[in-house]
């Protein structure tokens, strides 16, 4: 009854309180798959040599209440909250540090986890650890490689001064035809020259007889 009355008092004030640097929680965010184990830590940076560190949880659903989970008491030992599955929650103590282990977590275990110490009369809270339990972890998308399009270099066509006639099948044919005509004409000219020379020789022989 004492713990239940204490918890009702804490739950009424928790929404108005802010995290303090006196209690250092780690990690601040954790995402795991179902049925894995999660370790949370809280260290008290205060003058108290043996502070009692309470662990609380708030569910993800809007309007979820704050639930007292566990505390390690130097006299009573480990004290669990009402309805807490003890086989799924382990707590250990190291002077000013408190560690809890959540075993075989389910998506219903997702929420905000706080550690807290009690003063006289102030209450000091850690900044909280956001726990997200999912069936399948999201895959990190691989960065897409940007393909840089190859630049096509346009070659400036420099004007080339062509010397002579352009070479082509038609031109070569005309050249060959011209050569043949010249050869035929030359042959005809030589033949006519030879005939004229023979005729001249015969005329001279006849003239000087």
In angstroms, what separates the terminal alpha carbons? Answer: 174 Å
Residue ranges: pLDDT <50 for 5 or more in a row?
none
Radius of gyration: 53 Å
Proportion of beta-strand residues: 25-35%
List the total number of helices.
Answer: 2
Strand tally: 11
What's the average pLDDT? 78
Query: Which range best describes the helical content: under 10%, 10-25%, 25-40%, 40-55%, 55-70% or over 70%?
Result: 10-25%
Order of helix and strand elements from N to C terminus: HEEEEEEEEEEEH
What structural class do helix, strand and pairing data support? alpha+beta
Envelope shape? rod-shaped
- Strand count, sense and closure of the main sheet? 7 strands, mixed
Describe the SSE topology.
Layout (H helix, E strand, L loop, with lengths): L1 H13 L8 E4 L2 E5 L4 E7 L8 E7 L6 E8 L3 E4 L8 E6 L2 E6 L8 E8 L4 E3 L3 E6 L34 H39 L2
Parallel strand pairs: 2-11
Antiparallel strand pairs: 1-3, 3-8, 4-5, 4-9, 5-6, 7-8, 9-10, 9-11
Describe the structure.
Strand 9 and strand 10 (123-125) form a beta hairpin. Strands 2, 4, 5, 6, 9, 10 and 11 form a 7-stranded mixed β-sheet that branches. A 4-stranded antiparallel β-sheet has the order 1-3-8-7, with no helix packed on it. The chain is α+β, with helices and mostly antiparallel strands and 209 residues long. It is built from 2 helices and 11 strands. The model has no long low-confidence stretch (mean pLDDT 78). It is 25% helix and 31% strand. It is rod-shaped.
